[in-house]
Amino acid sequence: MKLVSAFMLVAAAGALLVGESASAQGRPVFGGSYTAVSAVGQDQAQVVYYRAEDVSGASAANIYLDREFITALKPGGYTAFCVAPGRHMLGSYLNDAPSYSGKNEELYAATFKGGATYYLKVREEGGNHPLPVNRALAATELEGQRRQVHLLSRASKVEPCRHYAYLDAPMVTLREFVLLADTAFDGRHGMSSAGNRQIQSVLADLQRENAQITRVEVEGHTDPLGAAADNQLLGQRWADSVRSALIRSGVPQAMTQATSAGSRTLVKHGCYGSQDEQRACYAPNRRVVLRVEVRRTPAH
């Protein structure tokens, strides 16, 4: 028992000497201010662990990964590191020096997925497990935070982060939406209340996906009943109405274009019977197609 105690005292003294030596050599406590981290590939998971600046006291929160010391976060400090995907133990302890017993106590265990970035915050009260924070809130709270650099990590599971430029490049995709004319328009070919709700639903879906609209093509289609020239004009009126609704909803006019395919591109063929029966059968042809080009910045 005495040997164990002596070993712990020596280890604690060594840890203190590391801190004193760094301080004696004039090593700064903080490095540069936080900037958004780049994405990592599927072969790694990334962690940004930070501590609020507006906390009472100046004691450090010791961060442990798989029971090994990473750093000691002071108020307003952060650290960022990468690990192999899989299950890891992670947590922070306040005031566990000089014995540094936190690494031997129960830590938060979780499975970290490859390609993901986790934003974690030190809990100042009520537990050593980290507080998960969503990316948007973390970006706000990390503004002005500084990297903790005064101590060397002892965590053997920490890996140098491998960042790939293509992962941060915006992704451009084309989304297609279909509005059925029988419900989207009223008798005067203007947008009905149901049609306006469909427009709002489309825009809300894109907003939830963090998609930036870069171009919208609106194309009107009719059924084959009637003269081709009349159908061409009707399809254009429908497309113009939808384009106007998009512009009223905030889509820049320069990004939108309205055209008509008339009755040239049918999705339903060969309808027979009375005019009413044919009109009901051909209903899927009466539509407006929205082709929306969107740009997404990867979330990590």
UniProtKB/TrEMBL annotation:
The reply to whether Membrane figures as a keyword in the UniProt entry is yes
Q: Does the keyword ATP-binding apply?
A: no
Signal sequence interval, chain numbering? 1-24
The protein's matches in Pfam families, at most eight in alphabetical order, are given as: OmpA
One GO cellular component term noted in the UniProt record for this chain: membrane
- InterPro entries, sorted: OMP_bac, OmpA-like, OmpA-like_sf
- Keywords, ordered alphabetically: Membrane, Signal
Localisation per UniProt entry:
Membrane
Identify the residues that the record assigns to the OmpA-like domain, covering every copy. Answer: 172-296
What is the name listed in the Swiss-Prot or TrEMBL entry for this protein? OmpA-like domain-containing protein
Task: Identify the species of origin.
Answer: Stenotrophomonas terrae
